[in-house]
Design goal:
With 177 residues, the chain is mainly alpha-helical. Helices cover 64% and strands 8% of the residues.
């Protein structure tokens, strides 16, 4: 398969769904796909970074890989068949609860940063928030599963608590405001 087709050289692209749709490359759906792709790439970086940590962080790296699969499902659901389920959202809630049970209570606002792993989790978290905004915009013009918004919202929360966990494992304090 050739990697380049020259079909997009004039600002148009195709969405391969049940039927092929030709759209402008600045269509909100393409913007949403791109943001989800960027988020998925950042999650891959987070997983690679924390996979080099201790056993606890390595476990979370494999859970991030599950999240990457779900992000792909969200992107696929925007153009074709929706396979995202409430169990995927519940999984993230369980991840959040599990991590929070090991952390000291948060009493102040926290700035992104501390350890490198924590900072990278925060970068992914902010991209998740942008993906959420893109999904809201896309849902105004295209049919979207409301679970996609719930999932991305929980994912950003998961990345926040994971950032705090990374700081704990790096023995680096959160940067409080």
């Amino acid at each position: 398969m050739k990697i380049y087709t020259k079909q997009g050289d004039k600002g148009q692209t195709s969405i391969y769904a049940k039927e092929v749709l030709k759209v402008s490359k600045d269509d909100i759906l393409i913007e949403c796909y791109g943001t989800l792709d960027e988020l998925n790439s950042q999650l891959g970086l987070v997983a690679a970074l924390i996979n080099k940590g201790d056993k606890v962080l390595q476990t979370w790296a494999s859970n991030i890989n599950k999240c990457q699969q779900h992000i792909f499902l969200i992107g696929f659901a925007l153009s074709d068949e929706d396979k995202l389920h409430n169990e995927h959202v519940k999984m993230l809630e369980e991840f959040i609860d599990e991590i929070q049970s090991t952390l000291a209570p948060q009493t102040r606002f926290i700035l992104p940063g501390g350890s490198i792993n924590s900072a990278q989790c925060h970068v992914a978290r902010t991209i998740a928030r942008r993906a959420e905004r893109a999904l809201v915009s896309a849902s105004k013009a295209h049919t979207t599963n409301p679970l996609a918004l719930s999932y991305i919202n929980r994912l950003s929360d998961f990345l926040f608590v994971l950032a705090r966990l990374c700081n704990v494992h790096a023995e680096t304090p959160d940067i409080e405001v």
